[in-house]
Design brief:
Layout lengths: L1 H58 L1 H20 L1
């Protein structure tokens, strides 16, 4: 009789642990899917910004060089201190 009760307890605990693992796996999969979607979205945005920058440099090469020189000078002043 005691063996049957022990077996039932073990089975109940095993089933509860299995359900908890399934819920954790489902939550991890859902989180991974959302992260993958966000990564794709951010990658697409970075590609758009990069292309916009390239277009600006093609259309305004002198202004782009001037901004690069100003940014380099400012960065040099900041890092020098």
């Amino acid at each position: 009789m005691e063996t049957t009760a022990s077996k039932q307890n073990v089975d109940r605990l095993s089933q509860g642990a299995h359900q908890a693992v399934d819920r954790a796996a489902q939550a991890a999969t859902s989180a991974a899917d959302r992260m993958s979607e966000k990564y794709d979205e951010l990658y697409s945005m970075s590609e758009n910004y990069l292309e916009t920058g390239r277009e600006y440099v093609r259309e305004h090469p002198v202004a782009a060089v001037g901004m690069a020189l100003a940014a380099g000078w400012l960065l040099g002043m900041i890092l020098r201190r």
